[in-house]
Every structure is written in structure tokens, then in C-alpha cells.
Write a structure and sequence with these properties.
The structure holds three protein chains of three kinds. Chain A is of the alpha/beta class. Chain A is built from 19 helices and 15 strands. Chain A folds into two domains: about 180 residues, Periplasmic binding protein-like II (D-Maltodextrin-Binding Protein, domain 2); about 210 residues, D-Maltodextrin-Binding Protein, domain 2 (3-Layer(aba) Sandwich), CATH 3.40.190. Chain B folds into two domains: about 45 residues; about 230 residues, MetI-like fold, CATH 1.10.3720. A two-stranded antiparallel ribbon of chain B has the order 1-2. In chain B, helix 3 crosses helix 12 and helix 8 packs across helix 10. Chain B starts with a helix and ends in an 8-residue tail after the last helix. The radius of gyration of chain C is 23 Å and the shape is globular. Chain C has 14 helices and no strands. Chain C folds into two domains: about 55 residues, no CATH class; about 170 residues, Orthogonal Bundle (MetI-like fold). Chain C is mainly alpha-helical. The chains are: A alpha/beta, B mainly alpha, C mainly alpha. At the B-C interface, helix 1, helix 3, helix 4, helix 5 and helix 8 of B face helix 1, helix 3, helix 4, helix 5 and helix 7 of C.
Chain lengths: ~425, ~300, ~280
């Protein structure tokens, strides 16, 4: 009898122990994901479906997405992380990564990504998530740039509308034909100028074969001879068409922010016949504001010794801040969301695919954007170097340097020498460490 | 003997009352103010590491600011430029409009609301609107200039005109000082105006000898607050120009912000904040000193 | 008010100036309203249209359903209400100390209080966040509301100026009659400065209504967001819903306009002092 009693007790004990882990496991973890993509109301429902799928496959994980305005998300994440109360996941830009890593604000993803097959991703996209040899973020999407030209204006000026310029020499020659100047020297039609419409300073430097940072010598080389040549080419447009007249034209030609959202913007009417554009132009601007624009796209023209099919590349990324409560589960979700699947950015054509897996589909659905996708995957793509100094305001300082040259306040060499000194000063602080 | 004792007791009583009434702020400062402000001072002497111990570097940040960083001086110049031009303009305009709005005209309430409206519109909306108004080709401002025969100006696109453009925009946000002046104008006793009129005073005399003295405490307030606010001017520049073109709208507070949140140089930014505090404090004290004789409190 | 016996030309001048200036001041609000009624393509048309070619009334219901408007509104009213109460109470008390109580060191304290305004908020933002995290107040309105009960230097300064314009004789004679400081504060000083107190209420309401930096940093759950944060949801990365944003902005300004219109009565009524003035 006693033995039966003891056996019953042991069995009950055994059963209760077995039950306990089950009870513990049933507590779902909630991941907090701060995303600006979530504000994209038109396309986010696809992502929501994907999140639901993930939650079904992983019943112990819940994902709470908090939409944050893209202008504020970096600050909000910074304060929260420093304050010891970060979200599990946050959207960000590749430019932030070096500075954030130096301040210890990000979780190192190396242990998690050991088994990931990166081959499907564009090398440029990957390099924008690495710093000092470690992986710090997962890429969401990339931006690349190319040249849009107005086919109607080409026809009018006797140029072949199906052959956009491929070299700088062609570019300058075509531009000349497309320019219309009146007798007073005022620019009536601007064939082309390097700073229209999405000139973020490094694009043409990339095409000209320029450099920013020498990893081996740990030196900023922004005053590289090719960079100087690029700015001198910028200046040549000023000199050729008259600096004063050109400056006057620039200030009135409403390009840039706000200028793209106007149906009669000079870039859409053909008043500016060729211009640099980002991959989001077809879907976000042209289709909405000027769907009848007859345009062609070519990768940025390059000079002899320059880079073919190049442009500067930037990435939007997702990170796991340091101190996140559930980094393991967060990465599980990251992998599912941004690596194995691409929720909507590709299906909606709002981002060029960064993985080869999606390229055929993308090119079929959005043929116009194909050129940009090619540039991203080109071996000459120029992702901006991952160094803290690049977070200097005005796009690493290049916009200011460019403006000094355009306004005739500094020579290209002076402007780039000054910028080199400034950037090197910032880098020296990190190298000393 | 008893006399001095009772004075001492009175003084003590007043001191206790003073501290008692001021206790909300004093307690609040000890709880919410000491730590953050103290940290900012401490950071200014460090190479700040946000997630770990910071490295003490003494005066290095300050040395860099004063002797190496040309943007520090550019930003200081831009802010002082703004103060010298915008502050007097805003003060005179606000006072003038408040006086006009205090007259017994019809639709007074509607007018007052109109002048206050720009201060109510959310900043994002007004920034977009102003970029448009200042557009060199189609903007309203240039359209009006051309109407009067002048040439349009490049405004935000040119280093020479970007600051004036922002100053123009700033003029339009004077709803707050206007309202404060309107409140202050209620304190002017009507009887004094009547007495002055009986003495044959002109409108200007009435303004100078009755209105102005009674408004002086409030004018002082608006000038000081305008000064403190102008030293920290940055939101519009941040939203609309990013400091450009060519650092012409890089105001001190904007550069501070860039150092803190874009370059993650918290120590350096804290140092800039300490310098800002001293400059603002000295300027404010100077204004208090020089206005002491001009401000009339009825005591 | 010096408004008796204006001659005709002066009156015309006054009206003219107000109309011309008023036109410029009204312009942004007008632009917001017509933009809210435009189709998004027309918003930035060249040359700009001063009246929508097609009035899109639908922008309003669209804007109000694009974000959880009522929820955000409720939060905002809660936030504004408590802040106003706290600010009014605490700031007037401290201002009283700095202006009506004759004690040594009050000028030094005054300067000290003002100097705390001379440091931009974002300099102290991070340590402040750490502080509030220690209290466990993150993701609530506490970091935003509780400090309001401890005085705001701007209003302390403002009320100090107004309190000082009341002659001390009033306080002194009340003291002779046996009143303590608190009674003088509540029964004499406060009623005499109604315009200033109204300004405090108005400004604090407006400030908190449009405040988004604080809420951005301290609030995590969307259910807690105030309208100022809600407005930014109209701006996604490449595509901002400008017309809807304008519609929402217009709706957001209406309560304040109404509040202002009706609180103006305090700015119109003159305060007549009995006895000592005139």
C-alpha cells in the first residue's frame, strides 16, 4: 500500500514538472518594432498579412508595430536606447550605423547571421549594413540613381530618342544641342546641368571614378584628383553658360523638394531635358504628376577611366538597438520579414529589390525601374563608405563644398581640400580610440 | 532694540513666505532640473560615451570650438545677425499692431484673431507654405515685388537672402507678443488718458507719457523673451534650409542640434550649450541693467 | 483706452493698416484652408491657384479617418487640461513670491529661474529621459504633466511682470487689516490680473496642443498619442498626403481659434482699480 502511495506521489510530481515548462512557454513575448514604413498606408496591409503569418508560425511571439514619422524615428530611437528602454527593432538609415556602433547603441548581429546565405543580395546593399567587419543591421531597401532624359526634346533637337548618353562626352554634346539661350543670354531651356534634380554630391563623383575614404591608410581622400575633376566639370557648366545666368536660372527653376510634386515642374515639361533621378521617381512622382512624360533612362554617363553603371547607393535598414529586451526573437522576425520575404516594398515598386530572388518579378512588373535595379547590382555601384564622418551635415559636407564651387566662392581644389580637412578631423577622433 | 528685533522677525517672515511661495519651482528644479543640467555641464568636459563611462577630456571641447571649428563662429555670427535685425523689427511691429488692435474699431475681435492665427497653424504646415511663398519664380513675395517694379529675389536659394527670408517669416509669428501687449494695455488706467487730454496732450504725448510707462514691464518681458528665443532660433532653419545654402542659415542652436543628434558628439554639443547659456545670460543681464530706469512698476 | 474722439483720417489710417497687415497674417491660414480643399495634384501647381478648381470636401472625412482622430483628440484634451491647471497654479504662486513678497535673494532666484530657459530642450533631453525612466514614467503622460505643477519660467516671468504693476500699497493695507499672504494672493492679486492669467491659459493650451517633441520621446503606445503626433502620420517617406495633412491641420486649429475668440473679452474689459489709481 505504501509503495502504491509513493508511486502515485512520484507520478503526480513527474506530471506537474512536465506541465510547468509548457505553462512558461505559453507566455507570448511582444516585440516592439518602430517603423516608418508602417506609415505607408497604401502598402502596409501586405506587411500586416505577413506579420500575422509570422505570429501564426511563432505562437510565442507577438509583433507590435508602432508607426513613427521618418523624420523623427532616429531621435526617438536614440533617446530610448540611451535611456535604457529601446524598442526591439527600429528602422533607420545606413548612414547612422557607424556613429551608432561607436556609441555602443546597436546589437551586434554576427552571432545571428552566421548561417544566412547572402549571395542573393546585392553586394552594395550588404556593405551598407556592415561596420568594422561586423553585421549591424538588415537591409530593407536601397536607393540608386540614374539619368532620365526627355525623349520628345531629343527628337526635337535631332537626337536619337532611343539612345541616351553613355559617356560624359556624349552627355555634354547632347546637352549643348538641347540648350536654348535667348539673345540676352538667359537660359530658356536647360539641356542639362549636373546638379538637377537629385544631386546628392557623390553621384557624379562615383561615375567619375572618385574616392572618399582609403581604408588602408585610414585617410579621407575627398580631394582625390578625380573628385576635383568632377567638380571642375560641374564648374564647366557654370563657365559655359554664364555663372550669373545659371545661378539665376537655378534659383527660379523650382527643382528639388516640392519641385518634384508639381505637374509643371521644369523636369516634367522638358525645360530641363536631362536630369539625375532616384529610383523612386517613376512610381512616386512621374506616374502621379506627369504620367504622359515620354522619357528614357540610362545609367549615369561616365568619363574615360570612370565607373560604368555606377551611382551612389544608400540603404534603409532595420536594427536591433542595444539593450532590446528580446534580441533573439527580434532577429527571428527580422529574418522572416526582411530576408526570407519582402513584404511590399518590392511588390509595390517603391524600392528596388536588393535580392536577386526578386529581380525577374520586379523587372517584369516595373520595367521602367529596371535600369536603377541594374545599377544597384552593378559591380561598380558606389555605396557610401561606412565611416562616422559621413554623418557630417549636408550629406557629408559635399553639398556645401559643391555650392561653394558653383557660386564661385572656392575653386574645386580649395573646396575639396577644406572638406577633407574637416572630415579627417572628425575621423581622427575615432581612429585615436 | 525691540525695533531691530521686530524688523529681523519681519524679514525672516518675508523670507519664509517668499521661499514658501517659490517652493514649487525650487522643488521642481531639484527633482527635474539638477540632474539634467548638471549632466550637460559634466558632458561638456567629456568625450561622451552614451552607453558607457564617458572620457574626461577637460577643456578640449571648448578649445576645439574656439580655435579650430570655423562653423562655431559662423553659427554664432548667424544667430547674432538674426537677433540684431529680427528682434527690433518684431518688437516694434508687435507693439504697433497691438496699439492698433486696442482701438475701438469695429470687428476688433476678428482682427485680433487674424493676427494670432499664424501662431496657431502647426509648424509643419507653415514651413511648407513659406517655402512656397518664397519660391523665386512663382512665390507670392516675388510676385508682389515684381508688381511694384522690383526684381524677384532668390530668397532661400541664395546665401545672401536666406537669412532675410527667415527673418521675414519670423515677423509673422509675433502673435504671442501682440497678445501679451494687449493684456498689458488693459492695465493702463483710463483716467490718466482723460487727465492728459484735459491738459491738451496730443496722441503722441499720450502714448509717450501714459501708455509707454505702463506698458514698460510688459515690453521688457517681450524683449527679454524675444532675446532668449532668438538665441535658440532653429526650427524653421532645420525644417526649411538645413543650414544652407553654404551655412548661411546655420544658426547656433541648429549647429548644436546637428552636433548632438547627427554627429553624436554629445560632449561637444553640451559645451556649445554651456557657452550659449553664458552668452544669453550676459545679454539678458545687460538688458535688465540698461532698462532699469526705463521700466515703471507702480511700487 | 485712448480711443475717444478719433478724427476721420486717423480712423481710415488705422483700418487701412490693419487690413493690409491683416491680409498678410491671414494668408497662411487661408492657404491651409484652400490647400485642404484641393486635389493633391493641384497643391503645388504653377502658377499657384488661389482657389481650388474643384473643391474636394471629401478631404475632410478622409483626413479624419486616416488617423484615429477622436482618440488623439481625447488624449490631447486630457494633456492640455491638466497642464493648464498645474501651470496656472504653480507659476502664479512662484511669480507672487518674486514680486509681492519682499525677501532677500528674490532677484537672484528670479535670474536663476530665467537662466534655466537659456538651455535648449534637446540638450537635457537624454538625461531627462533617463530620470523619467527611473521613475517608471515612460509611456505615460506623467513626464509631460507632472513638471507643469512645478512652475514654468516663461509664465513665472510673465506673471511677475503683471503682479508688479499692482501697487504694494494694496497688499500692505490688506495686511494691516490682518490678511495673510495667501489671502492677498488669491483675493486681491489674482483677480486684478485676469488678462495675464487668461494669456497663460491661452498660451499653455496652444503650446501643449501643438507640442510633439515631448510626446514623441515619452509615449510609446499609439493609443496615447496626442493630435500633434497624429498629424505627422500623414507624412510617409516618399509620399506625403499634403491635402489631407492640411485638412487635419485646419480641423486642429479650430478649437484654439474658438478659445481665443471668446477669451478676448478679458483683453477688452479694462480693469478699473478702486481707490489707488486715478
Amino acid at each position: 500500500m505504501k509503495y502504491v502511495g509513493i508511486v502515485i506521489c512520484l507520478i503526480t510530481l513527474l506530471l506537474s514538472i512536465v506541465k510547468i515548462p509548457e505553462v512558461i512557454a505559453k507566455e507570448p513575448i511582444t516585440l516592439e518594432y518602430w517603423s516608418y514604413q508602417a506609415l505607408d498606408k497604401a502598402n502596409w496591409p501586405i506587411a500586416e498579412k505577413m506579420i500575422a503569418e509570422f505570429e501564426k508560425k511563432n505562437p510565442d511571439i507577438k509583433v507590435k508595430v508602432i508607426p513613427v514619422d521618418w523624420g523623427e524615428i532616429v531621435n526617438k530611437t536614440l533617446v530610448a536606447t540611451t535611456g535604457g528602454n529601446p524598442p526591439d527593432l527600429a528602422d533607420m538609415w545606413s548612414m547612422q550605423i557607424p556613429g551608432w556602433v561607436e556609441q555602443g547603441l546597436l546589437t551586434n548581429l554576427d552571432p545571428y547571421v552566421k548561417n544566412i546565405d547572402w549571395k542573393q543580395f546585392a553586394p552594395a546593399a550588404l556593405s551598407l549594413t556592415k561596420y568594422k567587419g561586423s553585421q549591424w543591421a538588415i537591409p530593407m531597401g536601397c536607393d540608386s540613381y540614374a539619368l532620365i532624359y526627355n525623349k520628345d526634346r531629343f527628337k526635337e533637337s535631332g537626337l536619337n530618342p532611343d539612345k541616351g548618353p553613355r559617356t560624359i562626352e556624349e552627355l555634354d554634346r547632347f546637352a549643348e544641342k538641347l540648350y536654348k539661350i535667348d539673345d540676352k543670354g538667359n537660359i530658356v531651356r536647360c539641356g542639362f546641368a549636373p546638379w538637377f534634380a537629385e544631386d546628392w554630391g557623390w553621384n557624379w563623383i562615383a561615375a567619375f571614378g572618385g574616392e572618399i575614404w582609403d581604408e588602408k591608410t585610414q585617410k579621407i581622400v575627398v580631394n582625390h584628383p578625380r573628385n576635383i575633376a568632377t567638380l571642375e566639370w560641374y564648374d564647366s557648366y557654370m563657365k559655359k553658360y554664364g555663372r550669373e545666368k545659371m545661378l539665376e536660372y537655378m534659383t527660379t527653376a523650382a527643382a528639388g523638394y516640392g519641385g518634384r510634386a508639381i505637374s509643371d515642374s521644369p523636369i516634367y515639361t522638358g525645360e530641363i531635358a536631362m536630369f539625375v533621378a532616384g529610383d523612386w521617381y517613376p512610381k512616386f512622382f512621374i506616374e502621379l504628376y506627369r504620367p504622359d512624360l515620354n522619357y528614357g533612362v540610362v545609367p549615369l554617363p561616365y568619363p574615360p577611366g570612370g565607373r560604368k553603371n555606377s551611382s551612389e547607393i544608400l540603404a534603409s535598414v532595420t536594427v536591433i538597438p542595444k539593450g532590446a529586451k528580446h534580441p533573439d526573437e527580434a532577429f527571428k522576425f527580422l529574418k522572416f520579414f526582411w530576408i526570407d520575404n519582402r513584404p511590399f516594398t518590392v511588390t509595390a515598386g517603391t524600392d528596388i529589390p536588393i535580392s536577386n530572388k526578386w529581380m525577374p518579378y520586379f523587372k517584369k512588373m516595373f520595367p521602367k525601374v529596371g535600369t536603377w535595379a541594374n545599377v544597384l547590382f552593378s559591380p561598380n555601384a558606389f555605396p557610401l563608405p561606412m565611416i562616422p564622418a559621413m554623418s557630417l551635415p549636408n550629406w557629408g559636407g559635399i553639398i556645401t563644398a559643391r555650392d561653394y564651387v558653383l557660386h564661385g566662392k572656392k575653386t574645386p581644389k580649395q573646396a575639396l581640400d577644406d572638406l577633407t580637412i574637416e572630415l579627417q578631423r572628425e575621423m581622427d577622433k575615432y581612429i585615436k580610440k | 532694540m525691540t525695533g531691530s528685533n521686530s524688523i529681523k522677525r519681519l524679514e525672516l517672515k518675508e523670507l519664509l513666505n517668499g521661499l514658501l511661495f517659490a517652493s514649487p519651482w525650487i522643488i521642481g528644479f531639484c527633482v527635474f532640473g539638477l540632474y539634467p543640467i548638471g549632466t550637460a555641464f559634466y558632458y561638456s568636459f567629456c568625450n561622451v560615451n552614451l552607453m558607457g563611462p564617458s572620457e574626461w577630456i577637460g577643456l578640449s571641447n571648448y578649445k576645439e570650438m574656439f580655435f579650430v571649428d570655423e562653423k562655431f563662429w559662423i553659427s554664432l555670427y548667424n544667430t547674432i545677425y538674426y537677433i540684431i535685425i529680427a528682434l527690433p523689427l518684431q518688437t516694434i511691429l508687435a507693439l504697433g499692431i497691438a496699439l492698433l488692435l486696442n482701438t475701438s474699431i469695429k470687428y476688433r475681435s476678428t482682427f485680433r484673431t487674424i493676427f494670432f492665427l499664424p501662431s496657431i497653424v502647426p509648424q509643419v504646415a507653415s514651413a511648407i507654405m513659406w517655402i512656397w511663398i518664397l519660391n523665386p519664380r512663382y512665390g507670392l513675395v516675388n510676385t508682389i515685388l515684381r508688381f511694384f517694379g522690383f526684381e524677384g529675389l532668390p530668397w532661400l536659394s541664395s546665401p545672401e537672402w536666406a537669412k532675410p527670408a527667415l527673418i521675414l517669416m519670423g515677423l509673422w509669428g509675433i502673435g504671442y507678443p501682440i497678445v501679451i501687449y494687449l493684456a498689458g494695455l488693459q492695465d493702463v488706467p483710463i483716467q490718466l488718458y482723460e487727465a492728459a487730454e484735459l491738459d491738451g496732450a496730443s496722441s503722441f504725448d499720450k502714448f509717450r507719457f501714459v501708455t509707454l510707462p505702463f506698458l514698460s514691464p510688459v515690453i521688457l518681458f517681450n524683449v527679454i523673451m524675444g532675446l532668449i528665443g532668438a538665441f535658440q532660433y532653429f526650427t524653421q532653419a532645420y525644417l526649411m534650409t538645413g543650414g544652407g545654402p553654404m551655412n548661411s542659415t546655420l544658426f547656433y542652436a541648429l549647429y548644436l542640434y546637428q552636433n548632438a543628434f547627427e554627429m553624436l558628439k554629445m560632449g561637444y554639443a553640451s559645451g556649445m550649450a554651456v557657452i550659449l547659456l553664458f552668452i544669453t545670460l550676459i545679454s539678458t543681464l545687460l538688458v535688465f541693467r540698461s532698462s532699469a530706469r526705463l521700466v515703471y512698476y507702480q511700487e | 483706452m485712448s480711443n475717444r474722439g478719433y478724427n476721420y483720417p486717423t480712423l481710415v489710417l488705422i483700418y487701412l493698416s490693419l487690413i493690409v497687415l491683416g491680409f498678410f497674417f491671414f494668408l497662411p491660414f487661408y492657404w491651409v484652408i484652400i490647400s485642404s480643399l484641393k486635389d493633391y495634384r493641384e497643391l503645388f501647381k504653377i502658377p499657384p491657384t488661389w482657389f481650388p478648381s474643384r473643391i474636394m470636401w471629401i478631404n475632410y472625412p478622409r483626413a479624419l479617418t486616416y488617423i484615429p482622430f477622436l482618440m488623439y483628440l481625447k488624449n490631447t484634451i486630457y494633456y492640455c487640461g491638466f497642464s493648464i491647471i498645474g501651470t496656472l497654479l504653480s507659476s502664479s504662486l512662484v511669480a507672487y513670491s518674486l514680486s509681492r513678497v519682499r525677501w532677500r535673494g528674490r532677484e537672484i532666484l528670479f535670474i536663476f529661474i530665467i537662466s534655466t530657459m537659456m538651455i535648449p530642450f534637446f540638450v537635457t533631453m537624454i538625461p531627462l529621459f533617463i530620470l523619467f525612466r527611473h521613475f517608471g514614467w515612460i509611456n505615460s503622460y506623467k513626464p509631460l504633466i507632472v513638471p507643469a505643477f512645478f512652475g514654468n519660467p516663461f509664465y513665472i516671468f510673465l506673471l511677475r511682470q503683471f503682479f508688479r504693476t499692482i501697487p504694494m500699497d494694496l497688499s500692505d493695507s490688506a495686511k494691516v487689516d490682518g490678511a495673510n499672504e495667501f489671502l492677498i494672493y488669491s483675493r486681491i492679486v489674482l483677480p486684478l490680473t485676469k488678462p495675464a492669467l487668461t494669456v497663460v491659459v491661452l498660451f499653455e493650451f496652444l503650446g501643449r496642443w501643438n507640442d510633439f517633441t515631448g510626446p514623441l520621446i515619452y509615449l510609446r503606445d499609439r493609443e496615447l498619442f496626442p493630435i500633434a503626433l497624429g498629424l505627422r502620420e500623414f507624412l510617409s517617406l516618399y509620399q506625403a498626403q499634403w491635402s489631407l495633412l492640411m485638412a487635419a491641420s485646419a480641423v486642429v486649429t479650430v478649437p484654439i481659434v474658438i478659445l481665443f475668440f471668446f477669451t478676448q473679452k478679458t483683453f477688452i474689459e479694462g480693469i478699473t482699480f478702486t481707490g489707488l489709481k486715478g
